[in-house]
Specification:
Elements (H helix, E strand, L loop, with lengths): L21 E11 L4 E3 H7 L4 H8 L3 E3 L7 H16 L8 E5 L10 H8 L7 E4 L6 H14 L5 E8 L10 H6 L3 E11 L8 E4 L7 E6 L11 E6 L1 H10 L1 H11 L9 E4 L4 H10 L11 H4 L5 H12 L8 E8 L3 E8 L12
Parallel strand pairs: 4-5, 4-6, 11-12
Antiparallel strand pairs: 1-7, 2-3, 6-7, 8-13, 9-10, 12-13
Length: about 350
């Protein structure tokens, strides 16, 4: 089949992700993290804090932070190339590249364009989406899913990348303890014999807009729309309250849409706000902690990419097998939230095609 034939595919059913025996699956996930690690001991040297506080209150021992000259597009490129390598395809074999970020290298053009440039890929469209941060790992997946389901594309790369630690308030010890930089990439294709990615539910509570946001401040300290320092502002208690009071009810809706139950789900992969909160959320859902996947203890909260990085780790450590069901949850600034149940596909679920 050639690329020009892609538009002849019958779209899958919008409610279930299935149609004529096919679904949309995650063929591979790529990950790219900065080499530079900031340890708890290093933060203790800078701030009035302690290793015990960071371990006990957050569950974090280290976080990866981009170095000088290391940009969102660099991390996104690394994740994109890693996903392609794991799938055994060339970067030029994708039909569409979507980048989800709120920390672009430049306001214009899109980071997706720069990733394609650095990958030396031509003739492939690319654009950015900004889901507002930590929910992006699910929002962007839904965008890519829908483009594939349209029948117009055969292979879609969805990069989720942010250098969120660069937005830390210099004087806020909690932000420096929580946030890290990172990127991940879903490589999406049609799969056979599996539902693949299920129906995704999305939500936003605008009344909680100021629970977590990034403020741009001029040199004089006044709010400024287009120039000046970008600094994270976060009500940590508000984020925790949202995660533990709103998200559990939302999970019920996601499971109902997937016609399944929590007990039938093999893994729960949620946004890595911090390990302590992730484990508490799983307990609130009435599930054993060993169903949770935790990576923020080593990498910090990498915003939208965190849920994708956690999903990749589950696959690479053997915690995911073909046919397993994964509850995928993202939540964060907005406050926005999204969830879906993914049926994990194996290599045999993706038919070989001629390009």
């Amino acid at each position: 089949m050639t690329r020009s034939d892609a538009s002849t595919h019958e779209p899958t059913d919008p409610g279930t992700g299935t149609g004529t025996g096919t679904g949309i699956g995650i063929r591979a996930i790529g990950v790219c993290l900065p080499e530079h690690e900031v340890t708890n001991a290093q933060l203790v040297e800078r701030f009035d804090t302690s290793d015990a506080w960071m371990r006990e209150r957050l569950g974090i021992t280290g976080r990866r932070v981009a170095g000088p000259g290391e940009h969102t597009s660099d991390l996104g490129l690394g994740a994109f190339e890693d996903a392609c390598k794991r799938a055994g395809v060339e970067p030029s074999d994708v039909d569409l590249l979507i980048c989800c970020t709120f920390t672009p290298d430049h306001m214009v053009p899109a980071v997706a364009t720069l990733i394609l440039r650095k990958a030396q890929v031509h003739g492939v469209p690319g654009f950015d989406v900004n889901a507002g941060g930590c929910a992006g790992g699910v929002f962007a997946l839904d965008v890519g899913h829908k483009y594939l389901r349209s029948g117009q594309y055969e292979r879609v790369a969805v990069v989720v990348a942010d250098t969120v630690a660069q937005l830390n308030d210099p004087d806020d010890r909690t932000q420096h303890a929580i946030f890290g930089d990172g990127a991940a990439c879903y490589l999406l294709e049609r799969c056979e014999g599996s539902p693949g990615i299920g129906r995704t539910l999305l939500g936003t509570d605008p009344e909680r807009y100021y629970t977590a946001y990034v403020e741009r401040v001029s040199e004089e300290g006044r709010p400024n729309r287009f120039s000046g320092a970008n600094l994270t502002r976060m009500d940590a208690r508000g984020v925790k309250d949202f995660a533990l009071t709103v998200v559990p009810g939302f999970v019920d809706d996601v499971l109902a849409a997937a016609d399944t139950t929590l007990d039938a789900v093999d893994l729960i992969v949620t946004h890595q706000a911090n390990p302590v909160l992730v484990r508490e959320l799983v307990r609130r859902l009435g599930q054993p902690e060993d169903k949770a996947v935790v990576v923020a203890d080593r990498y910090g909260n990498t915003s939208g990419s965190s849920v994708v990085i956690a999903l990749a780790e589950a696959e690479r450590t053997g915690r995911l097998s073909p046919g397993d069901r994964v509850l995928l949850l993202g939540f964060g600034a907005g406050m926005s939230y999204g969830g879906t149940v993914v049926h994990w596909c194996g290599a045999d679920d993706f038919p070989q095609r001629e390009w």
